[in-house]
Design brief:
- This protein has one domain (3-240): Glutaredoxin (3-Layer(aba) Sandwich).
- It is 38% helix and 20% strand.
- The protein has 5 helices and 10 strands, in the order H-E-E-E-E-H-E-H-E-H-E-E-E-E-H.
- Helix 1 packs across helix 2 (94-114) and helix 2 packs across helix 5 (225-240).
């Protein structure tokens, strides 16, 4: 990873900390506002922020390569909760900032939602963890080595994976997201347009909803991790009572 990319990541990491701090400060009034807005139709789970899909979505069959240079398939999503985010390592803003914010929030996500996590695997009584999955949609530049270094910078427990576009396009669509090349990939500095939501995948490997980016003047549009912390325990608890 060259020096410029390291600088970009470092700056984004600092921005992520600042953004996350600002979001945490504003989470209480935001929660009150959302509660009032949902008074006419609260989701049965009691969540306030997650956008639930009308029904759980089956994820398209896929075979990726993760940052450990090992195959990753649908089976790797079974028996755990997954927070998935689509992006690429050359992303100048939302990707590193979101990953930095998720890294800072991860202990709280595990502590709050993990405490409510049921036994989803038939052969174990241990609570199943919540994983963060970074899906790269830029296979031309995002080599396995680069993905390993990139995701390891944020959190070694996060998972990064990628594949060729013929695998990625149907996979990303089935998750309720999108991506597209905004310019020719002949330009070494090309950008990739992609969804900024953090998608929630249940222990059956189905997509059930997403935390959409929050748009505020002068700020990067990204999912609010304080909302994830607030809602994930309710999401997990609702699953236990199905």
């Amino acid at each position: 990873m060259n020096m410029l990319v390291k600088v970009i990541i470092a700056v984004a990491f600092v921005i992520g900390l600042v953004v996350s701090y600002q979001m945490n400060k504003s989470s209480a009034p935001m929660s009150s506002q959302k509660a009032n807005m949902s008074a006419n139709g609260v989701h049965p789970s009691g969540t306030e922020f997650m956008q639930w899909y009308p029904a759980a979505r089956k994820i398209a069959d896929f075979t990726l390569t993760n940052h450990h240079n090992q195959p990753m398939t649908n089976d790797d999503l079974i028996g755990q909760w997954t927070l998935a985010f689509v992006g690429y390592t050359f992303c100048p803003d939302i990707c590193p900032t979101t990953l930095a914010a998720l890294n800072q929030a991860y202990p709280k996500i595990i502590a709050t939602a993990g405490a409510s996590t049921a036994d989803f695997a038939a052969d174990t009584t241990e609570p199943q963890p919540i994983k963060v999955w970074f899906l790269s949609v830029d296979p031309k530049r995002d080599t396995i080595e680069r993905l390993a270094e990139y995701v390891g910078f944020f959190n070694p427990e996060f998972i990064a994976a990628t594949a060729e576009h013929k695998q990625l396009y149907p996979l990303v669509r089935s998750m309720g997201m999108m991506y597209s090349m905004s310019q020719s990939t002949d330009d070494p500095n090309y950008l990739v347009d992609h969804s900024g939501s953090v998608v929630v995948i249940n222990p059956l490997g189905q997509v059930i909803g997403r935390f959409k980016p929050q748009h505020a003047p002068g700020q990067i549009a990204m999912s609010d991790t304080s909302q994830i912390i607030a809602d994930m325990p309710k999401v997990v608890a609702s699953w236990q009572h199905l």
